[in-house]
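Subject: Sanity check before I submit

Could someone independently write out the structure tokens for this chain? I want to compare against mine line by line before I put it in a report. The sequence has 153 residues.
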Amino acid sequence: MDSATPGATPLPLHRAPGSALWEKDQASQWLGMALLEVGPGRSRVEMLVTPRMANGHGVCHGGLIFALADTAFAFASNSRGGTVLAAGATVDFLSPAEVGEKLEATATERQLQGRSGIYDVTVRESASQRVVAEFRGRSRRLSDARAGAGRTH
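---
Independent answer below. Compare away.
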């Protein structure tokens, strides 16, 4: 069952469940990411590839592309509230991202059953819409009893 809601209007970012999560997400902010949209089961995040993000071949390090996709996945999976963490993820790199390019990761919920979810994230170069990577994340919602217990972040 595809639980994404095509055409649904996203919440204003200051009212979305992800807004509090974004305020605490120091890693994504440090990498210069921007949260563009959060809606039920989806999100969009962008990042400019800077010279400090280049690997030895002069293109964006794959780990940073993964981080961008993972951030979009985190906001889509937490868009309904509660505490949802990654259970696992895979990525396929399809095209290199060059320094100076802006990347946009769009996450979409594919399945949500019980406490488990599956999310697909496409990372594109913003101007050309060239696909840079495809990411699939598996989520697990913490039970209500454990959701806030002992967590500092």
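---
OP: Matches mine. For the report I'm noting this point. The domain at 18-141 is CATH 3.10.129.10 (Thiol Ester Dehydrase; Chain A).
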